[in-house]
User: Fold these one by one.
Assistant:
Number 1:
Amino acid sequence: MKKLSILSKLLVCSGLVFVGFSAQADEVKGSAAAGNTKVWLCVGCHSIPDYRADYPLVYRVPMLGGQNAAYITTALSEYKKGERKHPTMRSIATSLSDQDMADIGEYYAAQTASSPNNPLK
């Protein structure tokens, strides 16, 4: 009886491990190379030094180069869900897939001061 109890616990634990692996497999992996062709959406505001947007409020638009990929992906996802409020960013984010957001995040995370100029960024 005791052996059966231990065996059932081992089976449950091993099942949970496989569930964890399948959840990780569903995670989207970004590609900086793929993001290279997708950042044209960001150019109008985020590539202009000291740019200040005036709608809906006046604020300084951040430069994205060198920013953490996960932060960019999360921010875009929050704009898409409406958790962050900015009409322009929301409309852009709603047009992006999860893969697009991950690729854009990886692209900007890979940027440094010595990165070659991308005419699309």
Number 2:
Amino acid sequence: MSDPYDDTYTESQVIMTAVKIIAPFTLTYGLFMTFHGGDAPGGGFQGGTIVGVTVLMLAFAFGIEPTRQWLRNSFLVGLITGGVIIFGAIGLGMIALGGNFLEFYQLKEIFHIKPKWGLEAIEIAGISLIVSGVMISLFFSMAAGFSPERPSGTGGREESADRGVSDDD
């Protein structure tokens, strides 16, 4: 039985060259959005999304499998986990200082620094890492696809026999 879906990678010099030119700019813009989120439109979510999209562009241009091998699964899990740990640590740190979870006014009362720096730390170190890691991970998961062991919809005896059920039951 032939597979109706063709998932072969076709190399395109135009796309590869365009991505080589555009990727540094999109990565820089994503980092700019992340680092200037408190002072300008943007923030950790938008910046993390743009950084993640830069990796997706590389995967489309140079192949999903080489990009997946370059960004190992352990790196992506570490990125997401690190973001969650940083987010939680900052939030719990505010509780330890006598406030509520993510109540940054404790920073002003105890350390005499602007509460804005707590939010900046959450956006830059927490949210941007989580968003970019989740975006890239979801892309790789969807790109892997779902391949059932047997063709669906054949019905009848083949599926019943695979499960150990006969038509007589």
Number 3:
Amino acid sequence: MSAEHSAVEEREKHHKHEGPKKHIIAFIFSILLTIIAFAMVAAGEINTTFIYIFLVLMAAIQVFVQMGFWMHMKDRGHAFPIIGILMGVFVVFTIVIMAEYWAWW
């Protein structure tokens, strides 16, 4: 049992606990991004193409904030989940592009 206990202690030494400060900052940033997106849509007198591009940009930033801080993808040891997510994004984009191409012809 002592070997198991020392292995757990060794893992805990390498993994630093961030504490709530970064989570609170990420939460506030996420709320701020959401408020900005709602305000842009509520303004109403802005070009719709610009709003669409802006909303996609805000959503992409929101995804990176969520993945980095809430899912801890910025930490070490998350290579396989990141590769899986990137492969999923690649497959989805490929399907969307091929569906558009198929519908176009």
